């Protein structure tokens, strides 16, 4: 039942009407009168009580709760919000003189040019330059650079960084002069939003009946933030008919998930699949989108800055495409116009050499940016 909310003026008016209706003569309720002051005091108390009731009703329903209140509501079902994911990527440490051996210790901190985001060097035993004895990455004498993995200190989408923006070494590393990130970092994800949290709760309820499409979908979506997937039944990955078999194409948002991630996805599905039902898990096939365009700017725009904004906007849009999602050709110009108010015209738009064709993807493919050329 909807709550009948009244404003302060309505509460005062209702009291005046009730009082005047019960009185034998005219009652003075003019502004400044003692009786008017009493009625307004009553209304103020009623407004306060009314707001308490509204706050209580909001926090007692998942549909209207938010933030910590929603977490508390879901906690009654032992259902928790997915945590934020820290951005990860590769940076290159370089030096001008390669006479001496240098070591990049694990835990070395680097940051963006403006100092807003910090990253720590992490351990990667598969990296040929990693030396477990030195607990770091070795730059041998005669070698000018080494590529190492880093992870954002603070989890969340704010840790994502555009290409070439991580340029500061916090402190100093002997015989090392510079650092940069050759590719964009895009794996950072904020904690699950209230809307997604509620949607996943509904999916979880549906998944309580195991061996269903919803159960498998919930298992995959609960691995981490940013997971997208497609499920195809009674058919092999190569397209042949095979009753009783299904396959999942799973992406972590990068377009090229690791074997570790795919193994985790397999385990998640295996926990809820039907007995004797067989399945496979595959990474998406990557469809490259090479984009080119020419933009016209109005004064007093700095061309290099606007080009960088358009380039970043195009890359972010393509990176956000999910499995099987089409990249509309006409959307490219729209993104360019929206990147900066200084963009007055967009011409020569090309997508993989085509002047008008959308780039499509099947349920087992994901579109990711290749070469982006904005001139």
UniProtKB/TrEMBL annotation:
Residues 290-375 form the Baseplate J-like C-terminal domain. Pfam families: Baseplate_J, Baseplate_J_C. Residues 95-188 form the Baseplate protein J-like barrel domain. PANTHER family: PHAGE-LIKE ELEMENT PBSX PROTEIN XKDT (PTHR37829), PROTEIN JAYE-RELATED (PTHR37829:SF3). This is Baseplate protein. It comes from Rouxiella badensis. The lineage of its organism: Bacteria, Pseudomonadati, Pseudomonadota, Gammaproteobacteria, Enterobacterales.
């Amino acid at each position: 039942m909807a709550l009948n909310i009244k404003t302060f003026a309505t509460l005062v008016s209702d009291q005046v009407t009730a009082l005047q209706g019960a009185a034998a003569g005219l009652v003075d309720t003019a502004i400044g009168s003692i009786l008017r002051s009493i009625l307004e005091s009553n209304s103020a108390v009623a407004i306060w009580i009314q707001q308490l009731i509204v706050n209580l009703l909001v926090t007692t329903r998942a549909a209207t709760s938010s933030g910590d209140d929603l977490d508390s509501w879901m906690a009654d079902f032992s259902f928790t919000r997915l945590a934020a994911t820290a951005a990860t990527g590769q940076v290159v440490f370089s030096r001008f003189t390669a006479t001496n051996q240098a070591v990049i210790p694990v835990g070395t901190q680097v940051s963006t040019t403006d100092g807003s985001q910090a990253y720590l060097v992490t351990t990667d035993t598969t990296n040929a330059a990693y030396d477990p004895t030195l607990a770091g990455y070795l730059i041998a004498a005669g070698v000018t650079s080494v590529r190492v993995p880093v992870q954002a200190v603070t989890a969340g989408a704010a840790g994502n960084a555009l290409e070439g923006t991580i340029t500061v070494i916090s402190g100093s590393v002997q015989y090392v002069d510079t650092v940069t990130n050759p590719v964009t970092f895009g794996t950072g994800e904020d904690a699950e939003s209230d809307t997604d949290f509620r949607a996943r709760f509904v999916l979880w309820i549906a998944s309580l009946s195991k061996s269903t499409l919803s159960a498998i979908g919930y298992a995959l979506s609960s691995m981490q933030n940013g997971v997208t997937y497609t499920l195809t039944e009674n058919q092999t990955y190569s397209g042949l008919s095979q009753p009783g078999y299904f396959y999942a194409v799973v992406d972590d948002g990068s377009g090229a998930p690791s074997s570790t991630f795919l193994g985790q996805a397999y385990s998640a599905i295996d926990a809820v699949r039907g007995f004797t039902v067989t399945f496979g898990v595959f990474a998406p096939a990557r469809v490259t989108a090479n984009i080119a365009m020419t933009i016209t700017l109005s004064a007093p725009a700095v061309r290099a800055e606007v080009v960088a904004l358009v380039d970043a906007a195009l890359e972010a849009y393509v990176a956000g495409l999910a499995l099987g999602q089409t990249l509309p050709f006409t959307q490219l110009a729209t993104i360019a116009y929206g990147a900066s108010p200084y963009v007055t015209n967009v011409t020569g738009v090309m997508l993989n050499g085509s002047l008008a064709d959308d780039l499509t993807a099947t349920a087992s493919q994901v579109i990711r940016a290749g070469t982006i050329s904005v001139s």
